[in-house]
Amino acid sequence: MIDIQLVKKLRDETGAGVVDCRESLEKAGGNITKAKEILRKIGVIIAAKKSSRQTGEGAIGVYVHTNGKLAALVSLRSETDFVARNNEFKELAKDLAMQVAAMQPLYRSSKDIPSEVIEKEIEIETEKLSKEGKPAYISDTILDGKLRKYYETVCLLNQPFVKDDTRSVESVIQEKIQKLGENIEVGEFVRMVV
């Protein structure tokens, strides 16, 4: 039997439901760190299920650099106005605006990149690899890695999160979906420099 105080502590730290906390603690043998990992895996599944829901509400995240010469706006959408008014949601919108200002993404995700841009990138990297004389079986692996790195540079959701570079922006959003209990998606974003 798992101690209710452990369940409460895990719930406070993760925002997950009581039943999910109890079950993950049971699976982890009472180890909170392992229980968090289990909840994170559950959260990815929950987020995937919620991703098909419509997002008709939301908020605009705004970041203006202290010198006043750099700003970014991000549209962050949610299913309900209840979540859109939530302070964690608003903070996420602001953090994403800071992300856009700092990291200068060109696209929301790799799905938004026009095929001709991807083809051109593949052509450039393939040419570099052939000049280096890499065998084809190694070139494919290297090319995949280079494309992944390109996506991390130009796609907002693939970028390392500006406040914690051990996680991607997408994983931070997935955690918020789990915690707030509904779908969240990034809409349009813009970065402005004077």
From TrEMBL:
Q: Would the keyword Mitochondrion be found if you checked this record's keyword annotation?
A: no
Name the InterPro entries on file: EF-Ts_dimer_sf, Transl_elong_EFTs/EF1B, Transl_elong_EFTs/EF1B_dimer, UBA-like_sf
Question: For the Translation elongation factor EFTs/EF1B dimerisation domain, which residue ranges apply?
Answer: 34-192
Stored Pfam families: EF_TS (PF00889)
Q: Name one GO cellular component term.
A: cytoplasm
Q: Which GO terms describe its molecular function?
A: translation elongation factor activity
Keyword annotations for this protein, in alphabetical order, are: Cytoplasm, Elongation factor, Protein biosynthesis
This chain's function reads: Associates with the EF-Tu.GDP complex and induces the exchange of GDP to GTP. It remains bound to the aminoacyl-tRNA.EF-Tu.GTP complex up to the GTP hydrolysis stage on the ribosome.
Q: What family does the database annotate? A: Belongs to the EF-Ts family.
The protein depicted here goes by the name Elongation factor Ts
Q: What's the source species for this entry? A: Candidatus Jacksonbacteria bacterium RIFCSPLOWO2_02_FULL_44_20
